[in-house]
Each structure stands twice: as structure tokens, then as C-alpha cells.
Specification:
mainly alpha, 84 residues
């Protein structure tokens, strides 16, 4: 997934890329889960997207783990103790 940067305009360029990204989501790829949750949380302001970030973090996605911890420490989505 790393070579497919998170840029929505680029994704609409080819059906092959869209199909690939859909397959990643269907297979519960941690990077795909994180990207979708990140966008929903920060672009749409939906706090429930933190669940997706936690799923990605539990699967070993380092950026998701870091972000879930930071948001938890700020009191968003979970207690500070859980974030630690």
C-alpha cells in the first residue's frame, strides 16, 4: 500500500487502483483500515472512526498506535490510562 499514496484525486485515475484498494479493505489490511479511519476522523469529525484506528493499532500499525495514544492522552475517545 505504501506506493499508493493517500491522495483521493489519484485514486480515481484508474479502476485497477480502486479495485486494489477495495481488496485491501476487504482483507482488513491495517494500512487500509488506518487510512479510512484517519480520513473519517479528521475530515468528517466522526469520533467513532477511532475504533478503526484501534483495530489497525492492534494489528501492528505503528502510526495508528501512536495516534490512538496521542488522542487518548488528550481525552478523545478513551481514558488517559487506556491510552498509556
Amino acid at each position: 500500500m505504501e506506493k499508493y499514496q493517500d491522495h483521493p484525486n489519484w485514486y480515481h485515475a484508474t479502476m485497477q487502483v480502486q479495485h486494489f484498494l477495495q481488496q485491501c479493505r476487504a482483507c482488513e489490511n491495517p494500512e487500509s483500515i488506518f487510512r479510512e479511519a484517519f480520513e473519517v476522523f479528521f475530515m468528517q469529525g466522526n469520533v467513532e472512526a477511532l475504533f478503526g484506528m484501534r483495530v489497525a493499532a492492534t494489528a501492528g500499525h505503528m502510526e495508528a498506535a501512536y495516534l490512538v495514544g496521542l488522542l487518548g492522552m488528550s481525552g478523545i475517545g478513551q481514558s488517559k490510562e487506556d491510552a498509556l
